């Protein structure tokens, strides 16, 4: 089932994207914070993350939802943790990165 939450639709500085992060052109929007909660397979997490890292304004913030060390989100984040200072928010399934 398609899940769309319109609770943020009337906030001027929030853009909710419901598309495919592997094909979306992130260069068409300006953003300094992103919350990733979509496809959870390794390829999709990697594609969305790399697109965000390429196009986010600096300084900026990226948050990942559904982090677990045993799933593909966790595997990808662990693989890039030598290059990026990704932090886990204790007692949650969230990680974040301050992009500078």
Primary descriptors:
23% helix, four-stranded mixed β-sheet, alpha+beta, 16% strand, 2 helices, 100 residues
Number of helical stretches of at least 4 residues? 2
Q: Roughly how many Å apart are the termini?
A: 37 Å
- SSE order in H/E notation? EHEHEE
Query: What's the average pLDDT?
Result: 89
Radius of gyration: 13 Å
Biggest sheet architecture: 4 strands, mixed
Share of residues in strands: 15-25%
Low-confidence stretches: none
SS-derived structural category:
alpha+beta
Shape: globular
Q: How many DSSP-defined strands?
A: 4
> Looking across the biggest beta sheet, what order are the strands in?
1-2-4-3
What report would you give on this structure?
The protein is of the alpha+beta class. It has helices at residues 42-55, 72-80; strands spanning 33-36, 60-64, 87-88, 95-99. Strands 1-2-4-3 form a four-stranded mixed β-sheet, covered by helices on one side. Strand 3 (87-88) and strand 4 (95-99) form a beta hairpin.
């Amino acid at each position: 089932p398609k899940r769309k939450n319109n609770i943020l639709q009337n906030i001027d500085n929030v853009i909710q994207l419901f598309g495919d992060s592997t094909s979306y052109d992130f260069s068409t929007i300006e953003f300094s914070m992103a919350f990733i909660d979509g496809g959870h397979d390794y390829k999709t997490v990697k594609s969305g993350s790399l697109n965000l890292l390429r196009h986010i304004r600096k300084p900026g913030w990226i948050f990942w939802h559904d982090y677990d060390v045993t799933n593909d989100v966790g595997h990808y984040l662990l693989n890039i943790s030598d290059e990026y200072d990704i932090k886990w928010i204790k007692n949650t399934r969230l990680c974040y990165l301050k992009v500078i």
